[in-house]
């Protein structure tokens, strides 16, 4: 279990880099600098490096010499003072060495920032844990590390401490002791005005705009406010920059930032141990205090702290309200007509929390007005907020910030981009318009768009509750069930809203299906029950795990409760944008609907006096949706099912996809793709915007799909399958034979088929000239294989002899003669094959193309769409 968990966590890290996938909270490397604040003769203060020569210190003054009776005190976590433009913290001894979460967010940003995820007011810049520590006449900020642990009662505790020293971020001279000597006074002005990444902008922006340093003359602290468990520091920072997103002549770039410092609970929440069979975001530590005869990784899930108000009633099985409700506020900058739908999406999760024994566990609210609560701030780390960004990015994302000690979720700021409406509009039209009159318009009604916003809101809130994408959920429902009105009215399109199962493209005209999108379903109820159920009796996490394991085994094998991780391409169940338990059948229905939609696009996008931009965009969406269907199908070829298990469960974890199902995938490709899809091009709509790239459009889908089918990673799995299962396996020879039948079938090849045949030969040529697979330093073969990057050295494998044989077979079967273009085409193929098998010139390798349809969109505006 531990090894599997390590592999899964490592694979997730690699997958984020390879596939650009995931969700949920953004982290930026914190700059660990050490500042020393010291007095100057003029009463000012300067920040100097610890290793540099510090100005001569003044002695510690009386408190009243600095903080006069007339000075206004802002009491709270730290009492703060402002004197002659300087800001002071009075730190009580009781808060020294207490852990505090520090979160810095943008308040306002310049226009046109191109650093995705770091562009808009409200987005997180950095988070850290700080401990204020006093050492003689100095106070230091320490940044603890939580990567190693050992219980303080174990022999290993001291050894872990010796290998895990906390970094010093900054140091401050003690200016005075407070009146009763139970605390100290420090000057924090230069620290918050300085160029410290923890409270300023991160490296990606500095690199993007060639930023050198903070310009103190154009920067200042706006406010420092203190509250019972937090302080809020708002600053305006101007940086010297060689480039600017708006005007290079200013040689500067300005940001407004807010840094929240929130006191963490003195007694941490009890952690819940992670389980790869139930999907949760989490964190891991190397635990040296378990008594194991090795270093052991312990992983905890991320979850909110929910405890029943009435434990006795909870124990009796009654629904009970939590001591503290999970509350999300809607950004006051949100257009008012969308606020109710965002709130509905939040409140919809109450149904799932009832499975864990809680009622009214979560609520969405409009943010209070300045009159209702003058101290409320959307940047305040005490509050969770759905932030609304005026942006053309087609996205939304749901991050969260958790206690690194236990995984307790402390707050979340959902990022909601205005243009996500364009994304869901286009998807809803291209996936449902064949059966749904409400989707046949360039602009939906407010009610229709509101319901789509509600769906996205629920998905993003799921992330903030700790739930990652469950890409295996949509496989649970049979394809035919998704054509049933009764079934879809009850279940939606998938048992989890956390899948990338969008809208019902399977339902056909006449089926009567009207409920066309996902909803919080059976898996979501189960996941919340598993993660949030409260156990009486002060059980340890290990004791709770025993009960949770029983629950999990009871649901094993039931597809409604299956969790399929993101970040792998080996399992055809674990795909995005797919529906149903058979990709070939589902995609056949989907293509039938695309054929109905395409001839109507001009009518459904019509806007008087406008050009054909919307028509062109929606044609692109049709092509992209078609491309997705191809991606759903090819994953069956060389695919394996992945079902994580523990020692006390029977059966295999990995099983190859059945031979007949893989053959079915090739039959589909030959019929729906390699036989030229003329319906995509023989239409009047194309003439309104196509300027000579029709051939390229079809070629791109065909050749990219070929490249994905023929990837060496896929062929490596197929050889493994053949070695293990012999004649029961779908082999590389079977694959080549099925491809040849579809690509070199009888008849005169048209321009599209000639492109396809050349593409096939070039893809084979690429395999023949591929010496080794891509390498990823630090990743084991098993870790790569878990993501679908099954390693293989083609030079030492059976790939090259099989490719050579296939090329010879193609060459032998090439017809002779024909009209001028056909004869020239066959002669060219002959020369290509001859040169490949017996090269006389340096080899130019055309690597196999990536699989289509694997991303959230195929033409992403960003490298990772969280929605």
Automatic annotation (TrEMBL):
Q: Where is the composition biased (Basic and acidic residues)?
A: 856-867
Outline the extent of the EcxA zinc-binding domain: 443-746
Q: Which Pfam families match?
A: DUF4953, DUF5117, DUF5118
* Ranges of residues in domain DUF5117: 122-309
Q: Residues annotated as region Disordered? A: 845-867
Keywords annotated in UniProt: Signal
Q: Which Gene3D superfamilies match?
A: Collagenase (Catalytic Domain) (3.40.390.10)
Q: Does the keyword Signal apply?
A: yes
Tell me where the signal peptide lies: 1-20
The UniProt GO MF terms for this protein read: metallopeptidase activity
Cite the DUF5118 domain residue spans from the record: 60-109
Task: Say yes or no: keyword Signal present.
Answer: yes
Its recorded name reads Glutaminyl-tRNA synthetase
Q: Which organism is it from?
A: Mucilaginibacter polytrichastri
Q: What is the lineage of its organism?
A: Bacteria, Pseudomonadati, Bacteroidota, Sphingobacteriia, Sphingobacteriales
């Amino acid at each position: 279990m531990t090894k599997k968990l390590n592999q899964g966590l490592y694979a997730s890290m690699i997958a984020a880099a390879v596939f650009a996938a995931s969700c949920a909270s953004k982290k930026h490397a914190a700059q660990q600098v050490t500042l020393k604040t010291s007095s100057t003769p003029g009463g000012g203060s300067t920040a100097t490096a610890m290793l540099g020569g510090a100005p001569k210190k003044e002695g510690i003054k009386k408190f009243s010499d600095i903080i006069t009776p007339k000075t206004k005190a802002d009491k709270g976590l730290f009492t703060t003072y402002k004197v002659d433009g300087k800001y002071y913290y009075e730190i009580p001894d009781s808060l020294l060495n207490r852990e505090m979460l520090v979160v810095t967010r943008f308040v306002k940003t310049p226009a046109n920032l191109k650093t995705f995820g770091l562009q808009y007011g409200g987005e997180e810049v950095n988070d850290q844990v700080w401990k204020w520590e006093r050492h003689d006449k100095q106070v230091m900020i320490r940044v603890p590390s939580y990567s190693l642990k050992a219980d303080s009662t174990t022999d290993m505790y001291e050894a872990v401490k010796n290998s895990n020293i906390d970094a010093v971020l900054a140091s401050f001279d003690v200016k005075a002791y407070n009146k009763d000597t139970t605390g100290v006074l420090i000057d924090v002005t230069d620290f918050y005005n300085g160029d410290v990444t923890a409270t300023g902008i991160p490296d990606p922006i500095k690199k993007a705009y060639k930023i050198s340093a903070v310009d103190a003359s154009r920067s200042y602290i706006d406010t420092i406010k203190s509250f019972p468990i937090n302080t809020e520091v708002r600053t305006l920072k101007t940086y010297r920059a060689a480039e600017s997103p708006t005007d290079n002549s200013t040689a500067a770039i300005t940001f407004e930032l807010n840094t929240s410092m929130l006191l963490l609970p003195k007694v941490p929440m009890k952690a819940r141990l992670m389980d790869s069979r139930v999907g949760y975001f989490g964190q891991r530590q190397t635990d040296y205090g378990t008594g194991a005869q090795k270093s052991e990784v312990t992983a905890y899930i991320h979850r909110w702290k929910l405890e029943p108000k009435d434990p006795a009633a909870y124990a009796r099985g009654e629904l009970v309200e939590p001591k503290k409700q999970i509350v999300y506020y809607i950004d006051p900058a949100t257009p008012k007509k969308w606020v109710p739908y965002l709130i509905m999406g939040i409140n919809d999760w109450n149904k799932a929390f009832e499975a864990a024994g809680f009622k009214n566990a979560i609520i969405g609210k409009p943010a209070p007005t300045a009159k209702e609560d003058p101290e409320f701030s959307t940047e305040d780390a005490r509050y969770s907020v759905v932030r609304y960004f005026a942006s053309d990015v087609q996205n939304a994302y749901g991050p969260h910030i958790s206690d690194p000690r236990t995984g307790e979720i402390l707050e979340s700021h959902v990022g909601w981009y205005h243009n996500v409406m364009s994304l869901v509009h286009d998807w809803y039209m291209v996936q449902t318009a064949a059966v749904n009159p409400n989707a046949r318009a360039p602009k939906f009604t407010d009610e229709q768009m509101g319901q789509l916003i509600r769906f996205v809101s629920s998905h993003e809130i799921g992330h903030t509750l700790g739930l990652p994408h469950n890409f295996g959920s949509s496989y649970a429902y049979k394809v035919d069930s998704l054509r049933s009105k009764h079934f879809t009215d009850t279940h939606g399109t998938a048992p989890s809203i956390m899948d990338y199962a969008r809208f019902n493209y399977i339902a056909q005209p006449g089926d009567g299906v009207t409920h066309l999108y996902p909803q919080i379903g059976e898996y979501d109820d189960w996941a919340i029950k598993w993660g949030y159920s409260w156990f009486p009796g002060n059980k340890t996490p290990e004791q709770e795990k025993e009960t949770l394991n029983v629950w999990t085994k009871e649901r094993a094998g039931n597809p409604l409760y299956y969790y399929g991780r993101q970040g792998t391409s080996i399992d055809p169940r674990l795909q995005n944008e797919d529906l149903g338990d058979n990709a070939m059948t589902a995609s056949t229905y989907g293509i039938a609907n695309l054929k109905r939609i395409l001839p109507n696009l001009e009518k459904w996008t019509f806007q008087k006096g406008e050009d054909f931009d919307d028509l062109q965009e929606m044609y692109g969406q049709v092509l992209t949706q078609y491309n997705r269907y191809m991606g759903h199908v090819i994953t069956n070829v060389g695919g394996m099912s992945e079902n994580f298990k523990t020692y006390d469960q029977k059966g295999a974890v990995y099983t190859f996809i059945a031979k007949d199902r893989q053959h079915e995938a090739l039959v589909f490709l030959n019929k729906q793709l390699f036989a030229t899809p003329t319906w995509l091009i023989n239409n009047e709509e194309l003439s309104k915007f196509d300027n000579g790239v029709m051939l390229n459009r079809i070629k791109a889908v065909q050749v990219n799909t070929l490249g994905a089918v023929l990837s060496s990673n896929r062929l490596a799995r197929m050889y493994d399958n053949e070695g293990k299962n012999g004649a029961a396996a779908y082999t590389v020879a079977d694959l080549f034979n099925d491809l040849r039948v579809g690509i070199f079938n009888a008849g005169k090849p048209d321009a599209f088929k000639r492109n396809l045949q050349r593409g096939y030969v070039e893809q084979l040529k690429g395999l023949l000239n591929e010496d080794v697979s891509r390498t990823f330093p630090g990743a084991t073969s098993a870790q790569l294989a878990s993501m679908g990057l099954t390693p293989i050295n083609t030079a030492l494998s059976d790939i090259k002899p099989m490719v050579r044989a296939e090329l010879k077979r193609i060459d032998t079967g090439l017809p002779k003669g024909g009209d001028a273009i056909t004869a020239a085409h066959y002669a060219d193929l002959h020369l290509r094959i001859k040169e490949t098998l017996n090269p006389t010139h340096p080899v130019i390798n055309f690597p196999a193309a990536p699989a289509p349809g694997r991303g959230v969109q195929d033409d992403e505006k960003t490298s990772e769409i969280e929605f």
